[in-house]
Amino acid sequence: MHHKIKWLLLTLTIFLGSLVTYATWKNNLPLISPIVLVEVLTGNAPALKSKKIIYGFFPYWNLKYSDQLNITSLTHFAYFAVDLNPDGTINIKNSKNEQEPGWNKLNSKSFEKLFYQTKLLSQKSVLTITAMDPETITSLTTDPLSSQTAVNSILEVYQDKQFDDINVDFEYVGVPDNSTRDGFTTFVRNLKTSCLSRNYKCQVDVDIFADSAEKLRLWDLSGLTPFTDHFIVMAYDYYRKTSYQAGPVAPIRGKCSPNSKHGDLCLEQDIITHLSQITKVLPSEKILLGIPFYGYEWQTASRDYLANTYPRTGTMASYSRIQSIFSDPTISSISAKWSDTSLSPYLIYEKSGKIYQIQFENPQSLEQKIKLVKSANLGGIAIWALGYESPHNDLWFPISNLSTP
Description:
Layout: H1 2-28, H2 34-42, E1 53-59, E2 76-83, H3 101-106, H4 109-120, E3 124-131, H5 134-142, H6 144-160, E4 165-170, H7 178-198, E5 204-209, H8 221-224, E6 230-234, H9 271-278, E7 287-292, E8 294-299, E9 315-318, H10 319-325, E10 331-339, E11 344-351, E12 354-359, H11 363-375, E13 380-384, H12 396-399
Parallel strand pairs: 1-2, 1-13, 2-3, 3-4, 4-5, 5-6, 6-7, 7-13
Antiparallel strand pairs: 8-9, 8-12, 10-11, 11-12
Helix pairs in contact: 2-9, 5-6, 5-7, 6-7
InterPro entries: Chitinase_II/V-like_cat (IPR011583), Chitinase_insertion_sf (IPR029070), GH (IPR017853), Glyco_hydro18_cat (IPR001223)
Keywords: Hydrolase
Protein name: Glycoside hydrolase family 18
């Protein structure tokens, strides 16, 4: 009972803090208002009449939570993932000759049961295809044989498992050369054309980094637009487990205007800055804003916002992990905070004489993101990742308001 009361009081504190923040954020802070920026860049376009997309990525490692998933609100269920080899074949076995887990789980009875449930709910099923290192991506995009093999391999799985759509998640870290960048556009075009020849309703979606309109990245946004149905903006990991400061995972705002007097609270980047750049290039209805169901946890040198972190102490903190902290008898001095800078919550606690900080999302911060999506007339949201919230359902409450006026 004591832990339940403590959790209730902390939740109430964050909730009230978020209400106060929302009432004052446009007038009292030296930061750029997201609503103002988006209105300028979208030209106050009329609200979309179609239903907003709620896209949920389901990583294979969360299959153990399949019986606890809340998937009824989804429009798209995206299995994550099937990985490609450099030659374009599906990665079925690892270096130890063990079955690759993404492929293994896709073919399991547990996933078959979950997949059937999504069909009963009339949700669009999406096959996510991944390539995560520059060498593999370069091979798949510049070698014609590897590229065509990849298209054929993807469509074979797509048809065999009866997916509706395809998601391409090629995460090239760094600056690609022109041949790789152009080759990726050609790859997506060929994949879309080939998929349509098998299923006239097939859609192909592409995941992009949040800074893709600011920096030279793999994705030629203008070139990809004719062949890409949705662009999932990975608007998270602004701070990571390896960051030298503890900061918000998905800050709506926080990048200060030039010559700001509040430099100690300023962030290097934020969602609204990146979104303002992307909406200049892409049609807003094709953009899905990625939102995290997780945060990060670090040991820090102080209890300050943006406190320095100790090396190699960062770890991913699922929403269920955050909930469990309040019933941990070894934890003391828990403080629930709300950042006016990023419009997101964070926790500070002590354990064994050490200070820890968790930056995360809660229903109040997600509500701000939902309002941003609606104000900017975006196509919807994409959740990373289903299962990180289980068995708690409160993150879904603000999402239920996505398609309301």
